[in-house]
Write a structure and sequence with these properties.
With 212 residues, the chain is an alpha/beta fold. It has one domain: P-loop containing nucleotide triphosphate hydrolases (Rossmann fold, 3-Layer(aba) Sandwich). The chain is built from 9 helices and 5 strands, in the order E-H-E-H-H-H-H-E-H-E-H-H-E-H. It has helices at residues 15-26, 33-47, 54-62, 77-86, 90-104, 117-121, 135-148, 155-171, 193-208, and strands spanning 3-8, 30-32, 109-114, 127-132, 184-187. It has a 5-stranded parallel β-sheet with strand order 2-3-1-4-5, with helices on both faces.
Length: 212
C-alpha cells in the first residue's frame, strides 16, 4: 500500500487547501471527498429531488456525473448546506464508499480530505490529520471567500450555517465527524496558510519516520 494521508475536519478549517498542498509535496493524487457529496446535493437541487428522499439521492450518487465535480456551483452556500444533509444518508454514503476506497488504495498512495477519511474510508492510513479552527474564524474565512466570488452573504448567516453543519456532521449516526484516535490535531485558528501547510508536512513526515 502506498502513502495514504487522511485529512479530516469541519468546513472552512483549511483542510482542503492543506490536503492539496500535501498532495503536491508528496507527489500523490488528491481527492476532495466533500465534492462528491456536494455533487450529489447539486444534482438533487437541479433535479428537484427531495433532500429527504434517501432512495432517490442514493440513485443520484450511484450515477454521479464526474463533470459536476468541476461545477462552480459546488461552492455555493445552498449546495454546501444541502451536502451536509445528503452526506448523513446511508444510501448515499454506501454508493460513494467504493469509489473513495479505490482512490485511496492506488499503488502510489493518495491524499483524501473529508470528514470520515481517517475513521471510515481509510482507517489504516499511514498519516492522519484532523484540521480544525474556531467557528468564528472559519465563518470569517468562508465569508471572505464567498464575497470574493461575488456572492451576497452575511458573516452572521455563514456562522449560523457552519454551527448547524458542525452539529449535523458530528451528531449523525452514519460516520460522524470526529478526530480519529491516531490522528494528529492541527488547529489553524491563528496560522496563516503557509505556516499551516508546513506544520502539516512536518506532522506527516514524522508519521512516515523520515524527511521528505
Amino acid at each position: 500500500m502506498g502513502l495514504i494521508i487522511a485529512v479530516d475536519g469541519p468546513a472552512a478549517s483549511g483542510k482542503g487547501t492543506i490536503a492539496k498542498a500535501l498532495a503536491r509535496h508528496f507527489s500523490v493524487p488528491h481527492l476532495d471527498t466533500g465534492a462528491l457529496y456536494r455533487g450529489v446535493a447539486l444534482a438533487a437541487l437541479r433535479g428537484a429531488v427531495s433532500l429527504d428522499d434517501e432512495a432517490g439521492l442514493g440513485a443520484l450518487a450511484a450515477s454521479l456525473d464526474p463533470a459536476l465535480l468541476a461545477d462552480p456551483a459546488l461552492r455555493d452556500a445552498a449546495t454546501a448546506s444541502a451536502a451536509s444533509r445528503v452526506s448523513a444518508l446511508h444510501a448515499v454514503r454506501e454508493a460513494l464508499l467504493d469509489f473513495q476506497r479505490a482512490f485511496a488504495g492506488q499503488p502510489g498512495g493518495a491524499v483524501l480530505d473529508g470528514r470520515d477519511i481517517g475513521t471510515v474510508i481509510a482507517p489504516d492510513a499511514r498519516a492522519k490529520l484532523f484540521v480544525t479552527a474556531d467557528p468564528h474564524i472559519r465563518a470569517h474565512r468562508r465569508f471572505l471567500e464567498l464575497i470574493d466570488a461575488g456572492h451576497s452573504v452575511t458573516e452572521a448567516g455563514i456562522l449560523g450555517d457552519i454551527l448547524a453543519r458542525d452539529a449535523r456532521d458530528s451528531g449523525r449516526l452514519e460516520a460522524p465527524l470526529r478526530q480519529a484516535d491516531d490522528a494528529d490535531l492541527l488547529d489553524t485558528s491563528e496560522l496563516d496558510i503557509g505556516t499551516a501547510v508546513q506544520r502539516a508536512v512536518d506532522l506527516v513526515s514524522r508519521r512516515m519516520n523520515r524527511t521528505f
